[in-house]
Amino acid sequence: MKRSFGSNSSGNSGSNKKTKKKIPSNQKTLGAAWGAASLPSSRSSFRSSPFSDFGRVLKLENSSESVDLYNDLKMVLHFYMEVKNRKLQNQYDTEATTSSYGVSGSEKLIFQGVSIFVDGFTIPSHQELRGYMMKYGGRFENYFSRRSVTHIICSNLPDSKVKNLRAFSRGLPVVKPTWIVDSISANRLLGWVPYQLDQLNDTQPKLSAFFAPRSHLTPHVASPVTSCQPETGYSEAEEGSSIRAEEGSSIRAEDSEESRDHVDDEIDGVCVENTTPEMTEQTRADDLISSEVNAEILSNYDNEEKEVSSELQSSTNLPSASDNKSFHVNGKNNGKSFATPAGSSSRRHSTLEDPNFVENYFKNSRLHFIGTWRNRYRKRFHGSSNGLKCADSGQNTAENAKKSTIIHIDLDSFFVSVVIRNRLELHDKPVAVCHSDNPKGTAEISSANYPARAYGVKAGMFVRHAKDLCPRLVIVPYNFEAYEEVADQFYDILHRHCRKVQAVSCDEAFLDVSDLINVEPEFLASTIRKEIIETTGCSASAGIGGTMLMARLATRVAKPAGQFHIAADKVEEFLDQLPVGTLPGVGSVLKEKLEKENIQTCGQLRLISKDSLQKDFGVKTGEMLWSYSRGLDLRSVTAVQESKSIGAEVNWGVRFRDQKDVCIPVQHFLQCLCKEVHLRLQGCEVIGRTFTLKIKKRKKDAEEPAKYMGCGDCDNMSRSITVPAATDDIEVLQRISKKLFGSFCLDVKEVRGVGLQVTKLESADPSNKGSRTLTSWLSSASASVQTEKDDNVFAAEVRENSDSKRYDTGGVSRLRESYSAEPSVQSGDTNSSLPPMCHLDMEVLENLPPELLSELDGTYGGKLFELIEKRRGKRKINSNSSHVSLDGTASIKDSKSFSVKTHGLRTSGEKEHEEAHVPHPSIARTSSERTIEMADLMPSSLSQVDVSVLQELPEELRADVLGAFPTHRRQQQSSSDAAPMETCKNQDKEPIDMKEAEKEIGFSYSSLWLGNPPQWVENFKVSGDSTLEKLSEIYYKVATSRPMLSTVLQHAISEVGSFRDANGNGLDKSIYDVCELLKQYMKLKVEGDIEEIYLCFRLLKRLAARSQLFHQVYEILSPFIQALVSEHYGGSLSIP
Amino acid sequence: MNQKDANHSGEVGRTLVEFLEVAITMIVYVKGLYPSAAFERRRYMNVVVQRASHPELRDYIHSAASGLLPFIEKGLVERVAVIFYSKDNVPVERFIFKLTINLSSAASVEEGHLEFALRSFLVKLSVSKSLVKPLPHHCRWEVTAYLRSLPEVGSSKESELWIPTDTKQWQKPAVITPVKSLDSEPLCLQLYLEHPSLSEPQPCQAQS
Fold first, then answer.
1. What is the CA radius of gyration of chain B?
2. What are the boundaries of the signal sequence (chain A) (predicted)?
3. Which of residues 54-73 of A touch B (CB under 8 A)?
4. Rounded distance, CA A262 to CA A1133, Å?
5. Alpha carbon distances (Å) from A808 to A37, A177, A999, A1127, B161
6. Distance between CA atoms of residues A828 and A637, nearest Å
7. Residue A399 annotated as binding site
8. How do residues A670-718 score in pLDDT, each as one tens digit?
9. Which of A170, A225, A644, A875 has its CA at 20 to 30 Å from residue A137's CA atom?
10. How large a percentage of chain A has pLDDT more than 70?
11. Contact status of B34 with chain A (Cβ, < 8 Å)
C-alpha cells in the first residue's frame, strides 16, 4: 500500500510547485461551473474537457488491486507544457533578478501583479516589452492562459478577433503597448482603460460632448467659459509631466499629444457634469471629477476599472485625471472643428456609461421637442381653441355643405431658419441642422435650408454624404429655446388673424377662413406671411384650397416663401399630373404598390373605382385614395385633439453591457425613462391606465447600424399592463416598467431601443375624479392586480439584485421568502440607509439563501450572524424545531394581507396621487424613516381616512401610520366602527387574481410551490379544467402531510382513467399550467433531491402513456429535465 | 463558531464518515465483486449491513473513509465516488455520493435525526442490485474523492493516504440513475449511479 502510494506521489512531486500554483484557478473554473450551473458552461466542462478534474482529484488505490499509472497522450502533452512554462518562468525570474540587481535596484516595481501576454506585432517590440516587464516587476507570459495573464497587449487585431473579442480575450483587457511605455514614464501604473485598443472603441464624438455647451445658446460662437480656466491648468500640468516623461525614457511626441487630448477630454467631462442639475452646486473641478468617477463606478463593475477609478478618486492631483480618460475632445471655442475623435474611450453617450443619458437624450432630441411642443401649445392657446371647439360642434354639418376655404401655413425649413435667422451671413449659404458635426459624418441631418436642398441635401442624410454633395455645407446645432420662441410667435400671429387654427406641428398649421367673408384668403395669407417674417425673421409659405388636402398640396407648390391658391375649378387640373407619392398618407410602400399597377398620378388613380381600390388596398386606404385623388378631404379644421397616448421612447444610443449585475444600468435607464414619461404626463395633466413597454431588439443577423449608435435593424416587441386606477405616479411607472422589461426575458445586449407609452388617459384634474374612489377601486374585480404586481416586481428585483447563480439554483420559494427583506436588499441599490437590525424579520433572514445572507451580514458589519446564532440557540431551548420554512411562509402570508390593507388606506388617503403606490409591508413595518418620508402623501386630516381600514391594521402598523399624522388630529380616530368588509373580500379573491395577473403579461415568477397547500393547488382547483381539478383533489387527499409531487403523480396514475382531457385551447392552457408546475418543482428539487426528480420523471412517463395531456407535458419537459440534471450533475437521467 | 459548535459539526462529520464506510462496503457487496463469504452480517443504525471480513479490504475501506474526515470537516469534499474499472482502466460504473455539508448549521442538528435519514440510504442500497450492471472480468475498483480545492499537504496522518490523481472520465455526459436523496440541514446527500452513455466511444485498445 505504502509503496504504491509512494510511487504515485513521486510521480507528482516533481511538479509540486506547479500544481500548487494552478490549483486555485483550476478549481475555480470547475467550481464555478458547478455552482453557477449555467447551462453551456457546465455542459462544456463536462463534455469537452474530460480531464478538467486533473490535479484536483484524490484517489485512494486499493493496494490489493493492481496499480498502474497510465500515461495518456494528452497528459504527456499537458505535462510538457507545464514543464515548458515553468522553465520559461524560471528563466524569466532569474533574468529579472539579475537585471534588477545589475542595472538598477532603485526601479519601482510598478507592474507588480500585472502579467501581460503580447499578441502580434507591437511597437515597442515583444522583446522590449518583456524587458520592461522584467525591469518593473511585472510578468510576461509566453503562452496565453486565462489564469496567469492579466492584460493582453497588442496594437492591431484582425477583424475576426475584434468581432469575436470575448472568445479571443476571455474577458481580459486588451491594451495598447503605449500603456506600458506611458506607465513607465509616469513611474506608476496607469489605468489601462484609456489605452484600450482603438478598434474596440467607437471613435465618434459623444453625445455628451455635444451636450456640454448646452447652456450657451450658440455653442459654436460662445466660448465655454467654464472650461477655459481649467484647461490651461491641465495642459500645463500635463506638459510638465510629459516633459518628465521625455527625460525618463523614449516617449514619442504623439504620445504626449495624445495625453494632452486626454486632458481636454476631462474638461469636457467637467462641462457635462455642470449641465446636469445634481451637479451644479459643485463647481470645483476636482469635485466634479470625483463625482464623475462615482458615476463610473456605478456604471462600471469591471473590477479593474473600479480599481482605476478608486485610484483616481483618491488622488486629488489634477494631471492624474487624465489617466481615466472618458470623454472625447469637443469642438474648441476657436471653432476649428467640432470634434476630433480621441483615441479611446468608453461610450459615455450611450446608456452604457452616462447615468444621465436619458435626460440628456431628451434634452437634445428634436423629435422630443416636436412631441412636447404640442402640449405647450395646448396650454398656451387653450382658450382660443376652446372657442373653436364650440363653434365646430354647432356648424360641422352646415360647413360641409358650404364652400370652405382653408389656408395651410408652413414655416420654411423651420429648424434651420430659426437657427440662422440672426446670422445674416448664412442666409444664402447651404446650411443644415444636425446634432453633431464630426469629421466622420455619420450623424444624420435633420433639416436643411433651401440653398442646401438645391445641392440635393435632404433630411435623414448622413452628414458625410451631404458634404460630398455640397462641400460648403455649414452644419449648425439645434437651438431649442429659439424654436420655442419662434413657434410661439408664429401661433400668436395665426390666432390673431383667425379663430379656427389647427396646429399640426410647431411650424405648420391649418386655418379655416371660411367664416371670414369680407377678407380675401389670398390677402390674408400674404398678411400673415408678412407678419411672420417681420416678427420671427423666418419665411413662411401658404397654400390655399377648398380642403385641408388641397391647402397642403398648394403649400408644396408655394414653397419656399411663397403662396399658392388652388381654386375649386382648378382642383382636377392640379391633381391630374400630381404623382401619387406626394399625397399625404401615401408612403413608399403604397406608392410602390400603386406603381406596380401602373398608377403614377392622381389622374390615373381617379380612373379606378372606389370598390376596386378598397378591395386592393383595404377599406380605409382605398377610401382615402379615392377621395384624395378627387381633392376631397372630409376632415375639418379642429383644435388640437386630446392626445390619446403619452410616452417616451429612446432608440438611439441604447447599449447595455452584459454583466451579472446588469440590472443596475438597465434599471437606472428605465427609471430615467419613467421619470421622463412622468413629467410628460404631468405636463399634459393626465393620468393613464395602460402602460406599454416597447423594446427594439437587434435582429439576429443585424450588424452594427450605419447610423452611429443607431438602433439598426430591429425586431419590435411590446407588452402592456392595465392597472385598475389611472396613475402618473413615478414609482408605479418604474415598477411596471421594470416588470414589463423583465417579462421580455431579453439579453440586454440586444436591446437597441426602449419606449414607454401610457394610454387610456384620463384627466388628472381633481374635479372629475369622483369615479375613482376607494370603493370603486376595491370593488373592481381586478383590484388586487396592483398588489400582486408589486409583489412580482419585487421578486424580479430580488432576482436581479442577487446574482444569477441564485436564480438558477435557488428555487423560487427562496425568492419569495426573501420578500420581506426588501428594504435591506434594496438599500444597496438605492443608497438608502439600512433598517436598524432590531427591525429585521428574523424568520425571513433565516430563510435567506446563504449567499444573500452573508452579503447582508457584510452590510451590517457581521453582526447579523451573531444575531441569528443567538436566535437559533434560543430556539433550541424552546425545542421548537418545527419546520422553519412553514414559519417563513406564514409570515409572508401575513405580510401580504398587510399590503392589501395598507394599500386600501393609502388609496383612500391620496387625493392627489390617485394611484396608490403600495408601500412595501416590511418597509412600513421596519423602517420608520420611510413612513415619515411618505407623510406628504398622507391626507392632511384623519377625516379623509377610512377608519375601518385603519382599525384593521396590526397595532404596530397603525401606530406608524398614526405617527405620521399631525399630533392634534389623532383623537379623531376611532369614531367609526364600520367593518371593512370589502377589504376582506378583496383579500379572498387575491390568489385567483394573482394568477390571472401573471398570465396577463405572460410570465410567472411566483412560486407555485409556496405555501401549504402550495399555490398551484388553489389555482388548479378553480382552473375549470377537469384534469387540473383532479390533481388538486388528489393533492388534498394524499399529499397534504407530505407535499411531494411524486405522491400526487403516483395517485394520478391510478386515477388517470377518469381524466377527461379538455380540447383545443383548454388543453393547451392546461398543458402549460402543468408544465409550469413541474418546471418549478424540478428547479426546486434538482439541487437537493434528485431522487424525487427521477421518481417524478418516471411517473410522468407512465402517465404519458395514458393521457394525452401528460403525453404532451412529457414531451415538453423531458428535454428540460435532462438539461436541468445535466446542469447540476453532469449527466442525463437514465430513462427506464 | 464556538468550541461547542465545532464539536457538534465534528460529530456530523464522524457520522458521515462512518456511514460512508458502511455504504462503500455495501456497494462492493452489492456489486458482487468478492464472494459473499468475504462479508459478514452486521447491524448498523438498526439496519442489516455487510462488513468485509477480509482484513485488508476492511482496512482499505476504513482508511479511505476515515481519511476523508479532515477534508469533510473543512467542507472540502464535494463528491465521493466508488468507481469500478474494466480491465482497460475505463470506468464502467460509478457510485457517486454528492454531498453538501452546511457546517454553520451543523450545530443545531440532532444526531438521531441524521442517522435516521442515512439509514434509508443503506436500506435502499441493499435492494439496489437491479440497478447495477454486471461486472466485467478482471475489474478493479477504487474510491475517489472530488474536492472543492486541493488541501495542504500533511494535515493528518490518515489523510496522507489520499493522493492526488487524475481520473479518467467519460467523453460524453454520463447517464445518471438516482438511488437516494437526502435534502436536509446540515447534510445534503445524493447517491446516484453513473454509467457511460450509449454513445460513449468504445475504449481504444491501444491506450491500455
1. 17
2. none
3. 54-66, 68, 70, 72
4. 58
5. 7, 40, 22, 10, 37
6. 55
7. no
8. 888 888 888 888 877 788 888 888 888 887 776 666 666 667 777 888 8
9. A170
10. 49
11. no
Is A1134 within 8 Å of B176 when comparing Cβ atoms? yes
Q: How many CB atoms lie within 10 A of CB A779?
A: 12
> Does the CB of A1092 have a partner CB in chain B at under 8 Å?
yes
Q: Is A333 helix (H, G, I), strand (E, B) or coil?
A: coil
What's residue A1082's pLDDT?
83
Instruction: List CB contacts (< 8 A) between B108 and chain A.
Output: 872, 875-876
Rounded to 5°, angle at Cα A552 from A546 and A556: 130
* Calpha distance A919→A917 (Å, rounded): 6
Torsion sign across C-alpha atoms A898, A900, A906, A909:
negative
pLDDT at res. A946: 59
How would residue B161 be classed by pLDDT, with cut points 50, 70 and 90? low
Is there a binding annotation on residue A1087?
no
How large is the average pLDDT for residues A753-768?
74
* C-beta atoms of A63 and B56 within 8 A: yes
Q: Is A508 a catalytic residue?
A: yes
Chosen from B150, B168, B208 to mutate, greatest number of chain A CBs within 10 A: B150
**Residues 6 or more apart from A1074 whose CB is under 8 A from it?**
A1027, A1028, A1031, A1109, A1110, A1113
Nearest to residue A354, comparing CAs of A310, A304, A295?
A295
Say yes or no to pLDDT of A430 above 80.
yes
Q: Which of B72, B159, B163 to mutate to test the interface with A (most CBs of A within 10 A)?
A: B163
**Residues in chain A closer than 8 A to B175 (CB atoms):** 1131-1134
Find, among A508, A512, A592, A521, the residue nearest to A555 by Cα.
A508
Annotated catalytic residue within A95, A107, A128, A508: A508
Q: Give the integer Cα–Cα distance in Å for A449 and A434.
A: 12
The verdict on B21 touching A (C-beta cutoff 8 Å) is no
The per-residue pLDDT of chain A, averaged, comes to: 63
Q: Which residues of A touch B197 (CB under 8 A)?
A: 1131-1132
A809: closest CA of chain B, how far (Å): 14
The DSSP 8-state label assigned to residue A579 in this structure reads B
Q: Alpha-carbon distance B198 to A572, whole Å?
A: 81
Determine if residue B186 is left, alpha or beta; phi over 0 gives left, psi from -120 to 50 gives alpha, anything else beta: alpha
- Name the phi and psi angles at A756, rounded to 5: -125, 130
Q: Which residue does chain A place closest to B185, by CA atoms?
A: A1088
pLDDT tens by residue, B46-85: 788 888 888 888 888 898 888 888 888 877 888 899 988 8
Gap from B143 CA to chain A (nearest CA, Å)? 6
Rounded CA-CA distance A452/A461 in Å is 12
Domains assigned to chain B: 3-195 (3.30.900.10)
Tell me the per-residue pLDDT of A86-109, one tens digit each, with 9 for 90 and over: 888 888 777 766 655 444 445 667
pLDDT over 80 at B142, yes or no: yes
Cβ B143–A5 below 8 Å, yes or no?
no
